[in-house]
Amino acid sequence: MMNYAASPDPAENAAVIAQALTTTRAGRQVLRGMDFTVPAGQVTGLLGPSGCGKTTLMRAIVGTQAKVGGTLQVLGRPAGDPALRSRIGYVTQAPSVYDDLTVRQNLDYFAAVLLPGRAHRTDRRTAVDRAVEDVDLADHADVLAGRLSGGQRSRVSLAVALLGTPELLVLDEPTVGLDPVLRRDLWDLFHRIATDRGTTLLVSSHVMDEAERCHRLLLMREGEILAEDTPEALRRRNDTATVEEAFLHLVDAAAARDRARTTHTEEPRP
After folding, report:
1. What's the Cα-to-Cα distance from 90 to each of 85, 95, 132, rounded to whole Å?
2. Residue 216, Cα to own-chain centre: how many angstroms?
3. Model pTM?
4. Please, where are the H alpha helices in the chain?
5. How far apart are CA 151 and CA 155, in angstroms?
6. pLDDT for 87-117, tens place per residue?
7. Highest mean pLDDT: which of 11-20, 119-128, 178-187?
8. Domain boundaries, position 76
9. 265 lies in a domain?
10. What is the CATH number of the domain that holds 179?
11. What is the mean pLDDT of the chain?
12. Considering its fold, how many domains does the chain have in total?
């Protein structure tokens, strides 16, 4: 397993700081008083089972989630601040590409939105060429997006997010459905982006073996942060061989606390 070294202090120069973060949707509290930090220039994994609130949390960070309470600072500004739009790249679970355009035409379109006008023509061409190379789609640049595989379409979405050289890149389960080779290549790309450009990456997943590829982890359960630490520290603290075993240990402990709390609440008064 490759060792991804990182600074031990996540609060130093943090890209994201959340305090008492809450979100309510359809009358249900989805995020429940979350406190955490995402260190700058590192790959932070957001891991937890489907339905635990990962996507809602990512939407809150990029500023597209309504009814967010608490404090959420992103790159030194309140989440959703208009000044953050050009500084954040967001890749959703569903590929955001036009099927009737080629890979390059998709990127040309989005580059024109980011850098409009004739004065930026050379900058747009440079950004598109770099993004195509970043995601290893040079051989498919002139292929219609609708004819690409699912993994290739996901890489086009990632290329779109990389056009503006974002300071923060938020990726919602980008490796779902990919074969092991593509997953490995994407994770290697994530680390190159962090190392070479100083970009902060927040990558969500429900696949626990991907936790070992992150500098730091946020483990979620039912809208709460169970743990926030490096993979090595989580394994050591819970005396387990893998992060998955550490996560299950934390889930069982949280469930036991919930049962004890419920039992105490339901005890009849004398």
Report:
1. 10, 11, 17
2. 12
3. 0.87
4. 54-62, 103-114, 121-134, 150-162, 180-197, 231-238, 243-266
5. 6
6. 999 999 887 899 999 999 999 999 998 888 9
7. 119-128
8. 11-238
9. no
10. 3.40.50.300
11. 89
12. 1
